[in-house]
Amino acid sequence: MATPSVNPRVTLNDGNSIPQVGLGVWQTPAEDTERAVTTALQAGYRHIDTASAYGNEAETGRGLANSGVARQDVFLVTKLWNSDQGYDSTLAAFDASLDRLGVDYLDMYLIHWPMPANNTYVDTFRAFTHLHDQGRVRSIGVSNFAPEHLEALIDATGIVPAVNQIELHPLLPQHELRALHAQLGIATEAWSPLGQGSLLTDPVITGIAEQHGKTAAQVLIRWHMHLGNIVIPKSVNPERIVSNFDVFDFDLSEADMSSIASLETGTRLGPDPRTFNFTG
Ligand code: A2P
């Protein structure tokens, strides 16, 4: 496997491209977010992933504004919260997110959860296509969609989301969804890519890390890259933010990839999208 020297970009089905490694700010407290985002951008990250529900969009926007990196050089993603699903409420929620972020367009907007009990994700996505047509969001996608939600969305709108951002790590490698995404032309994006930190002390991961002279987090991020996943590790710690981006100078072997594959248990760390209908 060839080693890229810079953060590769993943081409999306709409022709846009997204830097493969980004900074995620889920569970980053608002008071730490501005510094985390600025640190990341100054370290070379060009992709930041937040959400209305994280309560840190304003701080994310401030981190971007204070980083010295130009807005057009950063791929900025946020997500529509569950209680805002529906056509008109989506348009209002989008405006509110842009206001908080202090920007006048988004690189990507995602439906955070399908919320199947509400059955509003199709109307929500129609509002996304309107925002896309207006040029206010460049790419539109979804998060936590199961195969039946993707199929229903595509059947109803004729539009294939650019991305599905799902829980994905070695315990839950999501073979079925990754294969479906490949077939449909949807990019796979991994949330909780480090297993929320739980995999960082796994002896298989630390053993591989030792062999390569890298950290456990770097090995996990590289594993995602080898699978073609877009990956958004979270950290509030400046040294870790920097070191999580130092992943472009080594390769995992086939044997490393097989050892990591043996960690699969099917364990979910987050909610099951088929039953998660929380609007709080
Ligand atoms: P912290 O924010 O204190 O650095 P995930 O992205 O899978 O949700 O994992 C995030 C968790 O992993 C957080 O608890 C984060 O803690 C921790 N983490 C992220 N990067 C590293 C790293 N390089 N070394 C140790 N822990 C890390």
What is the number of helical segments per DSSP (H or I, 4+ residues)? 10
Task: Give the distinct bound molecules.
Answer: adenosine-2'-5'-diphosphate
Secondary-structure element order, N to C: EEEHEHEHEHEHEHEHHEHH
Report on the biggest sheet.
Answer: 8 strands, parallel
| Backbone structural class | alpha/beta
- Describe the strand arrangement of the main beta sheet, using strand numbers: 3-4-5-6-7-8-9-10
The N- and C-terminal alpha carbons lie at a distance of 44 Å
Q: Give the rounded overall mean pLDDT.
A: 97
Name the shape in a single word.
globular
For the secondary structure, the number of strands is: 10
The low-confidence parts are none
Radius of gyration: 18 Å
Q: What percentage of amino acids are in beta strands?
A: 15-25%
Helicity, as a percent range: 25-40%
Family: Belongs to the aldo/keto reductase family.
Enzyme class: oxidoreductase
Domain NADP-dependent oxidoreductase: 22-263
EC number: 1.1.1.346
Structure in words:
The model has no long low-confidence stretch (mean pLDDT 97). The strands form 2 sheets. An 8-stranded parallel beta sheet has the order 3-4-5-6-7-8-9-10. A two-stranded antiparallel sheet has the order 1-2. The chain has helices at 30-43, 57-65, 87-101, 121-133, 147-157, 175-184, 203-212, 216-227, 238-243, 254-261, and strands spanning 9-11, 17-19, 23-24, 47-49, 75-80, 106-111, 137-143, 163-167, 187-191, 230-231. It is globular. It starts with 8 loop residues before the first strand and ends in a 19-residue tail after the last helix. Helix 7 crosses helix 8 (216-227). It is built from 10 helices and 10 strands. With 280 residues, it is an alpha/beta fold. It binds adenosine-2'-5'-diphosphate. Adenosine-2'-5'-diphosphate binds next to helix 9. Keywords: NADP, Oxidoreductase. It is an enzyme of class 1 (oxidoreductase). It comes from Mycolicibacterium frederiksbergense. GO terms for molecular function: oxidoreductase activity.
